[in-house]
Amino acid sequence: MAKATLFQKEIPEEKRVFYYENEEDDPIKTKEQEKKVEVKLPEDYEFIPKNPFKKLYSALMFRIFWIFGQWYERRYWQAKFYGREKLKKAKGKGYLIYANHTNPFHDVFGPGITADRRIFTIISPVNLLLPGIGKILPAIGGIPLGTSPKTKKGFHDAVDKRLRQGNCMVIYPEAHVWPYATKIRKFPAGNRSFMYATRNNLPIFTMTTTYHRRENSKKEIPRMDIYIDGPFYPDEKKTEEENRTILAKKAYDSMVKYSKKSSYEYFKYIKK
């Protein structure tokens, strides 16, 4: 499968087919993944910077990221957004967005211009090794998963704190990027990532990216429509495990519903 790039070139049809054994197969592998490089965070990794200059740098980088994202999404991908007004129902409190994972760069910029506030995104530590963008991911809101008991605790504490501050947390429950996929895959981690909404009693939304042919264009690369759905709230009368299961199902069903609006299959995914 073709390597992902910020500005995607036309891909020959014969290279737009991926044969998979299960939905956890990874069509796009970085050099680090192919070499099975294991990334371990330092024990003193700072998930939330305390230094005022680092905070200022982060705010500046996020602003640049947001401005570029506006052009990248609306002009390059010709993206149209539906349902953003639903996010206003979470006014005054943090919330989480669960999105389908179908484009490595749109998935960085899309939520940032969709949300009505600062976003933070849960990422794999291996993403910190990506050329160019890897080093700035934490500055624009990337929170890498902990890799040891200490850093895992720091990771969970950071996610909870960012949510309590009233921010938006973005999660990709499908885990792996399947470029231009028009179906929703099962969540490999089950309902685990829904613990944050449950224990903080916060709403979740879904963001589903769909693909369509470009109007009045000979380009085969699709354009996007993005749908926001929600809010879905935890039920205070139910246990944490029950709420996690219920929210996971609501998110999955919502994403499946909107994914059916895709009208163009640029890449084909065929089970072996």
Give a brief outline of the structure.
The chain contains six helices and nine strands; from the N terminus they run βααββαββαβαββαβ.
General description of the model:
With about 270 residues, the chain is α/β, with parallel strands linked by helices. The protein has a single domain, classed as Glycerol-3-phosphate (1)-acyltransferase, CATH 3.40.1130. The chain contains six helices and nine strands; from the N terminus they run E-H-H-E-E-H-E-E-H-E-H-E-E-H-E. The chain has helices at about 30-35, 50-75, 105-115, 150-165, 195-200, 240-260, and strands at about 15-20, 80, 95-100, 120-125, 140-145, 170, 205-210, 225-230, 270. The strands form two sheets. Strands 2-8-7-3-6-4-5 form a seven-stranded mixed beta sheet, sandwiched between helices. The longest helix has 25 residues, at about 50-75. It is globular and about 50 Å long. It starts with 16 loop residues before the first strand and ends with a strand. The model has no long low-confidence stretch (mean pLDDT about 90).
Q: What is the second-level CATH architecture?
A: 3-Layer(aba) Sandwich
Alpha-carbon distance between the termini?
Answer: 16 Å
Number of helical segments with 4 or more residues: 6
| Low-pLDDT stretches | none
Mean pLDDT: 91
CATH topology: Glycerol-3-phosphate (1)-acyltransferase
Strand order in the sheet with the most strands:
2-8-7-3-6-4-5
Shape: globular
Query: Which bin fits the share of residues in helices?
Result: 25-40%
Task: Give me the count of strands.
Answer: 9
Q: In the CATH hierarchy, what is the class?
A: Alpha Beta
**Count of individual domains:** 1
- Structural class by helix and strand composition: alpha/beta
Rg of Cα set: 18 Å
The main pleated sheet reads as: 7 strands, mixed
